[in-house]
Amino acid sequence: MSKDNFYKNSLLLTLSNLSTGILKFVFSIILSKKLGAEGVGLYSLIMPIYDLFCCLLCGGMITAISKEASFYYNKNDYSNLNKTIHITIIFDLIWSIFIALLFFMLAPFISNVIIKDSRTLYSLWAISPALVFVAISSIYKGYFFGTNNIKAPAIIDIFEKTIRVVVIISLINLLSLKSITTTVTATYIALSCGELISLALLYIFYKSNKKKFHKSLKSESSPQLLFNVLAISLPLALNGFLTTGISTVSTLLIPRRLVAAGIEYTNALGLIGKFSGMALTIVFFPMILIVSMSILLVPDISNSLTNKNYYKLEKRIKEIINISVLLGITSMLLCMCIPTELGRLFYNRSDLGNYIRFVSYSAPFTYLMTSTYSILNGMGKQKAVLINSIISAILELILFYILIGIPSINVYGYGITLIITSLVGLILNLLEIRKICSIEIYFSTIIIGSFLTILIHYILKIFNLIIPSSLFLFKNLIIIFVAFMLFYFSITILNKAEE
């Protein structure tokens, strides 16, 4: 994958993820209005359970398929490419049906014993079919990413999120849903419907795309092809399952530790909804760019290592690090300048400002840490990813238990934990990356980066002062636009200074 293709595909995937991210944002705004902070908190307790089972089913599958598909596609070996997809789908279909049935049967236990809130039972039942749809969809997505066909999953993701928003609004309005239990259940029914539609469209696009390929002479056995995929995906799945499992325990621990800090359970759910469901969503919304690049970064770095093009490898890593750091800093400065306004703009709430400002301190570390995990995956360092992720997850669990239970800290322990764990994960990842390639940080880069950071901060402050508050919507949209234009300007300056 050439440099031009990498950034062209990154831009396309970013635009797609931006569209889906906006739709997710709309979705979360709808939830906040229909459910209130308590309902959003309840919704947030169910999602980690779903994510945990998704990791068990398809953790690492997109990465594994994209690497295998890229390998065969670049060799014009379409027979083994299509055969890999076919045998992996058969395996995943059987495995996902088994896990989905197990999830359905365990739902009462999960609801009453693990989550300890019986209102979640129907939601758990509603999302059990989605596990099958997500597992198969991950194979098709990996195929499209590996063959450089970014448009298909991009279009489908946008369509799927649109359908999800339409379904939830329709269900709430047509059925006149009022209670938190029925409304949260409806949101998860919408999730399952969206994933089914996404799978159907991915299959149609795949069948259409597959016809373009001709069979090659040499063909490996199906068991060998499946083994090749599982050899990559299983360590990643284990990593995802263990870290997500620990994170799920951490998430379920939060309301209990808030109660231990002297906060009533209903109010605890409300705090979780505000901090996790709303403030984190605003601060990490620009992460869309990092996630988009990370998806394409794995096959790109893998190809550089295969071709022993270490110059391109080191240059790419430095570019991604610059983008991640500056985007994190820009997001932090924006959230520090107008935190209350952002809460009012997106959720029509004036009580989110302190949470948004506090969470924003972790943005530079979290954005960069996310990129370094993708760099390590592209280098084939799945073992290091697993170890570093587990260390961070265990540290998160310990800090959650200690900090959130302190009455004077309570939910802010979430933010403190995020800062510490992202910084620790980042340091561990950078140490591992340096074992393979050098990451030189020049003094001029630090000076220019610091100057650009100060420049962004004061320009945002000036705009915040000179635009009258009476123009609330216009003022804040302009400040957000200016912030990310300054980010683009900063990246351009920094990259040119390093050439």
Describe this structure in words.
This protein has 499 residues and is mostly helical. It has two domains: 1-249, no CATH class; 261-499, no CATH class. Helices cover 85% and strands 0% of the residues. The protein contains 17 helices and no strands. The chain has helices at residues 3-58, 61-74, 78-115, 121-146, 151-174, 180-210, 222-260, 265-283, 287-306, 310-337, 339-347, 353-360, 363-378, 382-403, 412-433, 443-466, 472-498. The longest helix has 56 residues, at 3-58. The protein is globular, with a radius of gyration of 23 Å. It starts with a helix and ends with a helix. The model has no long low-confidence stretch (mean pLDDT 81).
Brief digest:
The chain is mostly helical. Helix content is 85%, strand content 0%.
Computed CA radius of gyration, to the nearest angstrom: 23 Å
Shape: globular
Q: Are there runs of 5+ residues with pLDDT below 50, and where?
A: none
Order of helices and strands: HHHHHHHHHHHHHHHHH
Mean pLDDT score, rounded? 81
How many structurally independent domains? 2
Oligomer: single chain
Strand content: under 5%
Helicity level, as a percent range?
Answer: over 70%
> Major beta sheet, specifics?
none
